[in-house]
Specification:
The chain is mainly alpha-helical and 272 residues long. Helix content is 56%, strand content 4%.
Length: 272
């Protein structure tokens, strides 16, 4: 598993053990129920279940703890409609930029729809300026290609000349355990930018939703957008952005329907 997944599982198992150091199956189910009652998203609950299955499954197989949670069911994930930033908000963010690193990060988030961890781990060698593309190391260490607009390539090319490091966004801390900026750094910088721009608080993931919503609503092919987002299957994209896709289909039908765009001579009986 990736380092990010391991850290997430460790945090989730730790949260359970703080409440109950020697849980049984009933205690685990009560813990998950309380999380759900407190308003936790179904996807978050599913991640808790996966962490518990993995951890306690290992202990059970090793004969270290008699609790096998492999039969613990995953909740049905509900894809909720997220708040998507408006075009005016993105314009305000762009106008409020006063730092070159912030500018490059914002351009990549909006132009490519990458996840914040993917943004943080971009290496200079991953960037192909001639092809206007970046090889992104996504979930499950799956590499995909995202493409850049001419504007992003222009500013990224200038910025990259001054980066004397392996990573596009190198860490500046001498005691850092990792060589690149962390997720929280970009979250904090975006929060500060929102405040300066007079925009309601946004997260990097909401900029990812902006990219997907904007491209789909302007007629982009859903399969191509799905590949850019790094979704395992196009059905995931359809579930999350079903409302956008429905609008695009409606508009397509209005513009290209054979009935709407041809002059048919209807029988007199129907017209009357």
């Amino acid at each position: 598993m990736s380092k990010l997944t391991i850290a997430s599982y460790r945090q989730k198992v730790g949260a359970l053990l703080e409440v109950n150091p020697t849980p049984n199956e009933l205690a685990v189910k009560e813990f998950l129920a309380k999380k759900q009652q407190s308003g936790a998203y179904s996807g978050t609950i599913a991640n808790y279940v996966k962490a518990f299955r993995s951890f306690f499954g290992y202990l059970f197989d090793s004969g270290l703890y008699d609790l096998n949670l492999r039969g613990l069911k995953l909740p049905k994930i509900k894809y909720q409609e997220r708040r998507v930033p408006k075009d005016e908000e993105i314009d305000k963010l762009m106008s409020a930029l006063n730092d070159v690193e912030d500018a490059i990060a914002l351009l990549l988030l909006v132009d490519c729809g990458v996840r914040v961890h993917e943004l943080a781990t971009i290496k200079l060698d991953n960037i192909n300026f001639n092809d206007a593309s970046i090889a992104i190391n996504g979930k499950g260490s799956k590499v995909r290609t995202v493409y850049l607009s001419e504007t992003t390539v222009k500013y990224l090319r200038i910025y990259a000349q001054f980066v004397k490091d392996e990573y596009l966004f190198p860490s500046t801390r001498s005691d850092a355990r990792i060589e690149h900026r962390g997720n929280r750094y970009f979250q904090r910088r975006l929060s500060e930018l929102c405040e300066r721009a007079g925009v309601e608080h946004l997260t990097p993931h909401q900029l990812r939703h902006y990219f997907a919503t904007h491209t789909l609503s302007h007629g982009a092919d859903v399969k191509a957008v799905s590949e850019m987002l790094g979704h395992a299957d196009v059905t995931i994209t359809l579930k999350i952005y079903h409302h956008v896709n429905a609008k695009a289909i409606r508009a397509m039908h209005r513009d290209y329907s054979p009935i709407a765009n041809t002059r048919l001579s209807l029988p007199e009986a129907i017209r009357s």
